[in-house]
Write a structure and sequence with these properties.
Layout lengths: L1 H7 L1 H9 L13 H20 L2 H7 L5 H13 L2 H21 L7 H11 L3
Helix pairs in contact: 1-2, 2-3, 2-5, 3-5, 6-7
């Protein structure tokens, strides 16, 4: 998702990553810059909503900002940072045990492929 949003417009990812500053409730009072940032926020949210499964959509549809939605999606897909660290530790342990038991040179590329695919989830 990170790459997809940045590929569409770098500013889309910045809104997701940093969040949107508090805007006045009355939209008639918004400046041109506030309108642009709000549009980026809504565009980011729309792209994320289109990319997720309907089960996850129901969990994030009430979010008010792209950052809030991104944070919830991270919890849904990756869990807390402790859970993610534990999962990465298990993957690394598997990789080392697999690598040390492999006898051929071609099988040593498999651990790198598994690691690369696991790093792509963030």
């Amino acid at each position: 998702m990170h790459v997809f949003l940045r590929a569409q417009d770098y500013k889309l990812w910045k809104i997701v990553d940093k969040g949107l500053a508090k805007l006045p409730e009355d939209e008639d009072l918004w400046t041109k810059d506030q309108i642009k940032k709000s549009t980026l926020n809504w565009s980011s949210m729309n792209m994320m909503q289109c990319a997720i499964h309907p089960k996850e959509y129901s969990k994030v549809s009430s979010c008010k900002s792209a950052k809030e939605m991104w944070d919830k999606l991270q919890l849904i897909y990756e869990g807390t940072s402790e859970v993610a660290a534990d999962a990465m530790g298990k993957k690394m342990s598997f990789l080392w045990s697999f690598h040390s038991s492999s006898a051929t040179k071609s099988s040593s590329t498999r651990p790198q492929q598994v690691l690369n695919s696991s790093l792509g989830f963030g």
